[in-house]
Amino acid sequence: MTTAPAGAPTEAPWPAPRARTPVRATVSLPGSKSITNRALVLAALADGPSVVRRALRSRDTTLMAAALAGLGAEVDTSGEDWHVVPHAFAGDTQVDCGLAGTVMRFVPPVAGLSTGRVAFDGDPHMRRRPVGEVLTALRTLGVEVEDGGRGALPFTVRGTGSVPGGRVVIDASASSQFVSALLLAGARYDDGVDVRHDGKPVPSLPHIEMTVGMLREHGVGVDDSGVNRWAVAPGPVAALDRVVEPDLSNAAPFLALAAVSGGTVVVRDWPERTTQAGDALREVLAAFGCTVGRVAEGLEVTGPADGLAGVDLDLHDVGELTPVVAALCALAGAPSYLRGIGHIRGHETDRLAALARELGGLGAGVTEHADGLSFVPARLHGGLFHTYADHRMAHAAVVVGAAVDGVLVEDVATTSKTFPDFAGFWASLLEIGSA
Ligand SMILES: O=C(O)C1=C[C@@H](OP(=O)(O)O)[C@@H](O)[C@H](O)C1
Ligand SMILES: C=C(OP(=O)(O)O)C(=O)O
To answer: Both 83 and 179 in a single domain?
Structure first.
């Protein structure tokens, strides 16, 4: 059972616009949350001023900027390009994690380098998202953490200005962010950090590759040659001037719009090479019967004229794509199975339970499994779709709403976690984009 989050929104539900004809549109998407927040952390740890160009301006990234500013970095987010000037971390401060996994997991290892007391808390549901492995690892690496034995928010990191670092074994099967968190700060620890994973397979591996790649771009030595082992050498983190790629995971609803309407959507500036998990959308959408190809402007997806095929996909590496992919499965003309995603029960909400409940509530033939979802074709109808403060639940809702009359999205504003004015952008696309 999922429950509506405490402090649930009071605004009227948003009627999702229908795509009554094939949508034809070319879109420029905001920057990647994952790249922006890693770039900010690395800039705050660097040996000089950095620039983060085309940074994503959203709740998760402004929370990260505020957290690092609270620790002592100068973070200027006033323009499109964000400027970060690192300073020694000092002084007591409070970090609001909101519902951002990247803030709750990436900032505590940085806070260990501060001389102040750093108190962490977040949204009500954030207290239920896993972080205990990071806190235990920090203690092993020489950082004092007070969490009242909860292994969860709220907790306080009491740094001494330096962290001994060294070897640590963690179970990162609940979230790849546990590994990324320790690696991002590791170069600034006296002995660096050597992280080994022991447990069921680590999900979302592309995100660890992103961490490793970005550390190397900052001149940090990383050994990732072993299986389930990542070692960061101690040393300086070079300042950098970087451009943030568009958020490919947030491309999911827009490309799905082509899929469900039989139209064509181009996402501008799709990178040739990337570590973003969203790049997997190329294969995922092809499996549904879409035509996917690169064009001069970016990535072009054309939906099938005769309805969506069923799919059988293991999304373990790209779990954050599940809500939109599940929406497509619910609309497909043949059975589907989404596997390998038990860990997304620890995302913004228990996404397997929430998707089964909300898609089922609109008539979908969906069944929840321990680590996935299965679907049989069914005729969907309108109704209220709860979003549980989860931006990607809202993405799933609008995709179904593009294909089905009368879908009402509760708290569409929750999309501000990773996308400024998502609803306005989506609506404008449907107004101008149908041909
Ligand atoms: O490191 C990151 O930026 C992320 C890692 C993944 O988390 P999990 O490994 O917890 O799935 C992903 O789902 C999340 O959206 C962003
Ligand atoms: C899991 C997600 O976010 P977070 O960074 O909060 O873990 C997500 O965006 O799908």
So the answer is: yes
Q: Could you confirm whether 320 is annotated as catalytic?
A: yes
- Ligand 1 atom with the smallest distance to the CA of 37 is 3
- 315-342, pLDDT tens digit by residue? 999 999 999 999 999 999 999 999 999 9
For residue 129, the ligand 2 atom closest to its alpha carbon is 7
Nearest CA to ligand 1 atom 12: 320
Bind-site residues: 33-34, 38, 101, 129, 175-177, 204, 320, 347, 351, 392, 417
- Among candidate residues 300, 320, 348, 358, the one labeled active-site is 320
The answer to whether residue 3 is domain-embedded is no
pLDDT (0 to 100) of residue 2: 39
Report pLDDT for 435.
45
CATH at residue 322: 3.65.10.10
Q: Give yes or no for a cis peptide into 9 (omega within 30° of 0).
A: no
> Does pLDDT of 4 surpass 50?
no
Same domain for 264 and 168?
Answer: no
Question: Quick one: 213 and 257 in the same domain?
Answer: no
- 238 CB-near residues (< 8 Å, 6+ apart): 46, 47, 48, 218, 219, 220
Residue 54 has which token pair? 């085309």
